[in-house]
């Protein structure tokens, strides 16, 4: 196919493009790629992989255009056309000038096959380039609603049905007793009557006495009299003082909120923005439940909310955070808190 078009278009069936033409094309593409690779970081704030992609695309386009210029310059000289005039036309009009040259050369040589096939290739390349390259270069052209549908997390399962309502208890009938009911005479005489016997009181214990008392007691004496009072005063003076109140126990873990203040950050590296989330223009807040140990490091992280594309970067950043140890009653304690990590795209 290419033998009749770009490579072998002369009457002698000799290739139009030689090795030096291919070398010129590849060199042109490499120079353009290197130039854009070093210039684009100074003009935009895109990431390295985006810059490499854009530089490679432009380099390939310029390499192909250089190959077309070489073809027009050599082919026009073989057919006796004004090569520099056609070179200028193609250089200024790009693919349009190349299509005009192919049609002109076909009318002069009578070989329309060598013109129609390259024109078809050109239009195919244009269509494929538009469909493939524009979404890679301009992310704003992507369908945001459909992309967010693909990237969003599946909805949570529906809540379980509520339990059936418990049967209402039967109403209790409370009967009020009036004074008339109490004073009313019984209608039935019982056959037997229960006899209630009063238990005799226990005899007084005469063996119980008072320390320091007189055997047999003294009429008119008093419990804890003079002798007992003196002995009680000596015993109370010699008694040890009461023990001090127990020291309040320091809890091992506290939660931030109310009178408890948040732990103080001493090292807070910023999270890296995920490339896929940046291309999809996704931003928001990732909320984490964290446990700060006694030495100020993060020991446990749980995701409470946030976009799935942002969660991994937030966890990796928070795990490197360091806090000043929290003291309670002079002792270091663990702190349970919630951490919000914001992801915002620069306008």
The radius of gyration computed from the alpha-carbon positions, rounded to a whole number of angstroms, is 50 Å
Number of strands: 7
Secondary-structure element sequence? Answer: HHHHHHHHEEHEEHEEE
The geometry reads as elongated
Sheet with most strands: 5 strands, mixed
Question: Which tags fit this structure?
Answer:
alpha+beta; disordered N terminus; 347 residues; single chain; 43% helix; 5-stranded mixed beta sheet; two-stranded antiparallel sheet
Structural commentary:
- This protein has 347 residues and is α+β, with helices and mostly antiparallel strands.
- Helices cover 43% and strands 12% of the residues.
- The chain contains ten helices and seven strands.
- Strands 1, 3, 4, 6 and 7 form a five-stranded mixed sheet that branches.
- A hairpin with a 2-residue loop joins β6 and β7.
- α1 packs antiparallel against α2, α3 runs antiparallel to α4 and α4 packs antiparallel against α5.
- The longest helix is centred in the N-terminal third of the chain and has 31 residues.
- It is elongated, with a radius of gyration of 50 Å.
- The N terminus is likely disordered.
